[in-house]
Amino acid sequence: MRRHLISAADLTREDALLILDTADELARVSERSIKKLPTLRGRTVVNLFFEDSTRTRISFEAAAKRLSADVINFSAKGSSVSKGESLKDTALTLEAMGADAVVIRHSASGAPHRLSNWVRGSVVNAGDGTHEHPTQALLDAFTMRRRLGSLEGRCVTIVGDILHSRVARSNVLLLSTLGAKVTLVAPPTLLPVAVDSWPCEVSYDFDEVLPKTDVVMMLRVQRERMNAAYFPTEREYSRRYGLDRERLARMPQDAIVMHPGPMIRGMEIAAEVADSARSTIVEQVANGVTVRMAVLYLLLGGSEPAIGKETE
Amino acid sequence: MSEAGAGRSSGEILIKGARILGGEPQDILLKDGRIAGIGSGLAGSPGAEVVDAANLIALPGLVDLHTHLREPGREDAETVASGTAAAALGGYTVVHAMANTSPVADTAGVVEQVWRLGRQAGHCDVQPVGAVTVGLNGTHLAELGAMADSAAGVRVFSDDGRCVSDAVLMRRALEYVKAFDGVVAQHAQEPRLTEGAQLNEGRMSAELGLAGWPAVAEEAIIARDCLLAAHVGSRLHVCHVSTAGSVEIVRWAKSKGWQVTCEVTPHHLILTDELAASYDPIYKVNPPLRTADDVRALREALADGTIDAVATDHAPHPVEDKETEWAAAAMGMIGLETALSVVQHAMVDTGLLDWAGVADRMAYRPAVIGRLDGHSESPGQPLRVGAPASLTLYDPSVSRPVDPGEMASKSRNTPYAGMVLPGRVVATFLRGRPTVLDGKLTGPVSGAETGESSK
After folding, report:
1. Tens digits of residue pLDDT in B188-226
2. Cis bond before residue B72 (omega within 30° of 0)
3. Among A32, A244, B148, B212, which residue is least crowded by beta carbons within 10 Å?
């Protein structure tokens, strides 16, 4: 594996399977009463969050702590960053403190890539602008695998604001690496112009792809898109691209419903669908910790076994 | 070839064995600011200084239509003195200084100040570009006539950095500058289509999650402006065309006989949007780097004359404005000191353009577009007896890795650092006076130059 995890494209099929298999092992730890492993004792993980994201931050924090790493949370709000300090100077500060890994969330696409030029430790992308969110894709793949088994040949439909979604980019790359067939569904305005160069299919018609969908992943549509003429009204969007009970009924019996959160109930997903047994939304959150443990372990621990013999 | 120092002896300089536009070796005698003789075995008067130009190509002094000198306002990035030093080292004898300074060059006072700073520095002529609209705000015409009538004699007007997007205002500007044979140089960028735009809209912008800058935003404005220029019978110049579609539109407009000219930057002839994969904002520029297909179309259009000029869009920025996240970084790259090498690499070494073609696209035609050709002292004229002795000696046989640390520009934002580029400017002469010899500045020039200025 590479030193950093910035894009899902950084992962070969072998890398991705290694992470998922490691996460499977680590999941067993989560079922114990004492969840902590000594693996990363003495290592420092910095959570560098330039964007508010409590969910992702605590997920990484829990993952690092369960591996016994020291965790420093660096929130840009109220820090020197909000007073105009550059990303480079922040990076040099972290470097001076001896961070072994920096988990970065940033509103600018490519910020983790830039950061990796300035720090010696591993950089983990926890979401950058409209670029990527690779650990989200890994936890999604992990969740799918637990429910459906191998992803080879499985049909995954991702619905919503693809253009601005880092989750969609990472999932398209990772799922195609793992052999799944991905179809993106969105109004043409919310697809990138060059989407035909991506390793996936594209459809404007949600109903057409439902019957052959094993996994449907609903993405949030941000309210600010409403005023930018991407679609006429919230109601029209919801009618054409929302997942309601009728659409759920037209999917295969064992198909699952995913959402990376936060969701807008009643907009892209009906409340009864989000809460149904076929929804994996809560599982995804739990799996997030496990998968991030696997990522931190493999980037920082590497050669030693994730779970020491003495803990077995 | 180092015997000719600045301002020593008779002022007569005999250049021995230069290949004018790549032709057979000839001697060129410079005297009293003019070319006094061209031929074999020329002899100057006893005091004449001799410059050995064996194997060097003589080109007319280059003319840049598009330079950001940053002074007044951003002297941390560039000054008139440092920018014109860079220009001379790149073989330039005239630069057109863009108006987006602080304060904006939208009054006679500011353009005259910039023009005077250029004369004081003495490395090359500085021909200020006047803003089309007050403060570049795109709402009210600046006093174009006052700038035209000023000592700076402005003939090129541009809101460069911003597009004159209001169709009525653009029409009026095109019409108004006819009164003094001016030209509007349009930065073609439809603003609504490029809100927050970061990178050419296409495969790379989709992959990198950077807001797209679609080709159509440039092409739609060029098409509109060509039609407007035709309608009112005015001259239009299009800055930095960057797409295959743009050159198609300009080719069509020219086929109609309309007075449309355009320029291309060196970087759009050689770099593509693939470079953004590093997220290094050294490659962030406006208009953005485009695709390999666009590069091919631009080279062909420059070769066939659809594109009239190579213009650097030299855009200096301090390090801290580039060592950032991509979206936060300033747009632009420096180019004066590498332009001729890039053109050799992209156009001459590929067989698309000969040295006469280079002279045409980098000196004659830019001089005509800027209306310098009407002034007997102005550089950018063909090298013949009686013409102003403004020329560049260039060695196309050497190559070198580009070292930003060696540059005269105050800024270091070159996209070519470490890249091996061919050619080297050996000497530059401005009205008979060497500004560069042996690839080095002849030194700071104190006070206004002695020769008569262009205007």
Report:
1. 999 999 999 999 999 999 999 999 999 999 999 999 999
2. yes
3. A32
Out of B160, B294, B313, B321, pick the active-site residue: B313
In this complex, the residue of B206, B210, B328 whose CB is nearest that of residue A194 is: B206
Q: Which of B192, B279, B320 to mutate to test the interface with A (most CBs of A within 10 A)?
A: B279
Domain that holds residue A12: 8-132+285-311
**Which residue type is seen at A141?**
A
Residue with tokens 């969908």: A213
Which residues of B, range 252-291, sit inside 8 Å of A by Cβ?
278-280
Rounded alpha-carbon distances, angstroms, from residue B219 to A163, A192, B166, B245, B249 = 23, 20, 16, 6, 7
Residue A216 is part of a domain; what is its CATH number?
3.40.50.1370
DSSP structural state of residue A312: -
Partner-chain contact B209 A128, CB within 8 Å: yes
Same domain, A182 and A272: yes
Q: Which CATH number is B13-58+385-441 given?
A: 2.30.40.10
In a domain, A3, yes or no: no
Q: Which secondary-structure segment (H or E) carries B46?
A: none
Count of positions (residues) in chain A:
312
Question: Phi-psi bin for B104: left (phi > 0), alpha (psi -120 to 50), beta?
Answer: beta
- Average confidence (pLDDT) over A73-93: 78
- Whether A110 and chain B come into contact, CB under 8 Å, resolves to yes
Q: What is the mean pLDDT of each run of 10 residues along chain B (455 residues)?
A: 45 96 97 96 90 97 98 97 98 98 98 97 97 98 98 98 98 98 98 97 98 98 98 98 98 98 98 98 98 98 98 97 95 98 98 98 98 88 96 97 97 98 98 96 60 40
For B441, phi then psi, to 5°, come to -60, 145
